[in-house]
Amino acid sequence: MKAYQEIRDVPYTFNADLGMVYSSPCRGTWNIVHYGLLVPEGHEIYVCPTSCLRGVVLTTAELGIQAMKKLSTITVGEDNLLDGDMEEELYHGTKEILSKLDPKPRMVMIFTSCVHHFLAVNYQRVYRKLRQEYPDIDFIDCYMDPVMRRKNPPDPSLRRQVLRVLKPAEKEADHAAFVGNCFPMEWCDLIPLLKRNGIRISDLTMTKTYDEFLDQAHASVNFTFHRAAAPAARDLRIRLGQEWVEMHETYDYEAIEKDLDRAAEAMHIPPYSQAEYAELRKQTEAKVKKAREVLDGIPVSIDYTLIDEPLGLALYLLDHGFEVESVLIDSIHEDESVFRKLQARKPDLRFYNSLNWNMRACDRTHDGKIIGIGQKAAYFNNTPYFINAVENAGMYGYRGIMRLMDLLIEAAEQPKDLKQLVQVKGWGCRCNG
């Protein structure tokens, strides 16, 4: 069996989340442990069987002692199931943990697991009691239940839950918030536009104190750059009345400019001028030209661990003269028009399902040099030439494309230790506060 299909044979409804799946050694993408560590003065408590806790503890331990100080666990055993004391264990276990923490955290994220749902544990009753006894601590119900991954995946759920502590507040016209990011948006066209108009930006990735985090409730507009952030922004729009503007990770210049114009309109500030857009396009095209010349026909492979829209990037690179050999993708979230254009543009594009069980035994050799855009693209092509970054890596718009071209040039010229790098969990994660 071939490990790939040609894109001409792939339906737009493709979804790999069916049946047995293969988990590759690539560990750079973030999970709920990593995102929870961004909350300053926060503490995570995982209430799970030992098999689940093993992964949680090892993930945190890789990040060092400061991260371990922000993690506690409560072990669920067979006796708890038989005795029916799951609620009591959750309550008393949390109280014991808090008695040993000095200073006390401002937020406690309690992660219940699949077994609590199977047994219909009334954990909300426990949280009500804890909130009464510890009024200075915000208790957040969080979930580590992969059995619910299709209806309520843990990662988007957590990005929403940590913001549930925000209360209705007076909105500030000169205050915006970035919601659901893993990294600061260092290469983003929106930031210069906001800053030159005196707009203050709240972003969890940049906050140092819990009070600074709570100040986000005063933002008049929330901006998202990831699909996983949509539930959080939608919830804030409903609960707090904050406007939500979705910034799409697109490589279509007109779409980028429409996003930026919508952002300016939402903040009631002047947008970029047509001359400024023309200059950004010129700079971007020059950077793309340089990258194409450096690669000089070397093929690339793209995966979804770095880029939210791998099909859009593949189409963009093909239209700019790059040789794109393959994409690795588990489901299609992009607009159907992009998918159809890519089918017509390169019908023999290799389309890998990286979750497929047969990827465990796929042929990872490659004739000649190939560059991976993302860790899985590197691993499945067994290439040391790759971009080692995840979760969009703070890139958006023209500046994001230019940054990506710089990374592509670096990947072509500087080989990396593939085995050493891809097994590091939560690449780039740091512990706030």
UniProtKB/TrEMBL annotation:
Alphabetical list of InterPro entries matching this protein: Nase/OxRdtase_comp1
One MF term in the entry's GO annotations: oxidoreductase activity
Domain named Nitrogenase/oxidoreductase component: residues: 45-408
Protein name, entry field: Nitrogenase
Source organism of this protein record: Stecheria intestinalis
